[in-house]
Design goal:
The longest helix is centred in the C-terminal third of the chain and has 18 residues. The chain is an alpha+beta fold. Helix content is 41%, strand content 11%. It starts with a strand and ends with a helix. Helix 9 packs across helix 11. It is elongated. The strands form three sheets. A seven-stranded mixed beta sheet has the order 1-9-5-6-4-3-2. Strands 7-8 form a two-stranded antiparallel sheet. It has a two-stranded antiparallel sheet with strand order 10-11. The chain has 17 helices and eleven strands.
């Protein structure tokens, strides 16, 4: 790959803003430089500077005469150019020049581009940009893209994969899962963590449909004209969640719903009974891992480890140990009740505190409360063997 400085003359902010088009719905700059420049090709991440800080910082740098740093374009086979690095800065000053956001002075007063003094507007528009034009194969261009994005705000894994497998499939998928204006996003937020603009929703959708083999799936579907399979599978998971759980809890967000769907979507559930159990477990003070409630119920309420049921504290355990050991000494039997009724050599053994575990007399899952009256000390061997009985 070769790179050459674009000069004689240098492009200015005004040149790049000629014909600048910004898609408010998709949140990205589309074109510039009189229609010759594609500002956000498909391998680029979404525009993320629209936060009133980073976009304003770009304008502040221009007003103070600070350099914006190097910008890289790619020359394509049809004579067009694509932004390889610098699209966040270009989209920021393009949006400002088109009066999409103001800068705020030290007195808290907002100033739009058209409100600036003529000399300030000229200073911005006439700022020369240091731009290098790169030419090379697709593989070389994308490898360079990954390299130059190590600095600054790093690309997340899905953004890199979008760059590597750019094509009609990624374009279609981003229109659905990377579009913050998609009304469905507000529904999906109940179950998915992360920023839609940083590809969190697309990453999750791909992870679900590919069973975790995202790169392989994207490579296989790269040149698909649509993403119908991806949308259908994702919708099936969301509809299944909504069909099993009649309401939403905060702890439902971020669970591995794709995996849960694969394991349990063929099971039948009584929706009202499921939600009654959810509410009951939320009210149970012994349940300390609320996030585990949903998988616990889906799995038939068998794996109590998912709930991290509150155990007896050390003070309680020591009090029960002392009482239980004193009673055992008087009777000449083991202070482990299960050893005492056994036939092995340990039936009269007095175990030390560290050799025993505090245990529910009746398993928590069968109604045993974490209360000192329901606590007994068992030797570690018997406690582990007892399990959930």
């Amino acid at each position: 790959m070769k790179a050459s400085l674009l000069h004689n003359p240098f492009l200015t902010v005004e040149d790049v803003c000629d014909g600048f088009v910004y898609n408010q719905l998709e949140g990205k700059g589309l074109f510039g430089w009189g229609g010759k420049l594609v500002i956000q090709p498909e391998y680029q991440r979404n525009y993320i500077y629209a936060d009133g800080k980073r976009d304003v910082a770009v304008i502040d740098s221009l007003l103070k005469g600070y350099p914006l740093g190097l910008i890289y374009f790619v020359k394509t086979s049809n004579g067009m150019y694509e932004v390889l690095d610098g699209q966040q800065r270009i989209t920021s000053f393009g949006r400002f020049v088109r009066n999409k956001f103001p800068v705020v002075d030290e007195n808290g007063m907002p100033h739009w581009f058209d409100d600036l003094n003529n000399d300030e507007r000229c200073k911005i528009l006439k700022t020369p940009l240091t731009i290098y034009v790169c030419e090379g194969s697709e593989t070389e261009i994308k490898e360079w893209f990954k390299t130059i994005n190590i600095a600054g705000i790093p690309l997340v894994e899905q953004e890199l994969l979008n760059a590597i497998y750019s094509g009609p499939f990624v374009t279609a998928a981003k229109e659905v899962f990377s579009n913050s204006s998609n009304a469905n996003v507000n529904v999906w937020r109940a179950y998915i963590n992360g920023d839609v603009r940083r590809q969190a929703f697309l990453e999750k959708a791909l992870k679900w449909v590919s069973r975790g083999n995202v790169a392989e799936y994207m490579g296989r579907h790269r040149f698909d004209k649509d993403c119908e399979e991806l949308k259908t599978y994702f919708t099936s998971v969301i509809d299944w969640i909504d069909g099993v759980f009649k309401d939403v809890k905060d702890e439902m967000c971020g669970l591995e719903w794709g995996e849960l769907y694969e394991r349990y979507h063929s099971c039948a559930y009584n929706v009202d009974a499921v939600w009654m159990r959810v509410e009951a477990l939320y009210e149970d003070d012994c349940v300390t891992a609320k996030k585990g409630i949903f998988e616990y119920i889906l799995g038939g309420e068998k794996d109590t480890k998912l709930l991290n049921v509150r155990v007896f504290d050390k003070k309680t355990a020591k009090a029960v140990y002392a009482k239980q050991t004193a009673a055992a000494q008087k009777k000449g039997i083991s202070n482990c009740p299960l050893c005492a009724v056994g036939h092995e050599a340990n039936k009269s053994r007095l175990w030390s505190f560290d050799e025993m575990d505090a245990d529910h007399v009746t398993a928590w899952s069968k109604g045993g409360a974490t209360d000192i009256r329901k606590c007994q000390m068992l030797c570690k061997t018997h406690n582990r063997a007892k399990g959930n009985r």
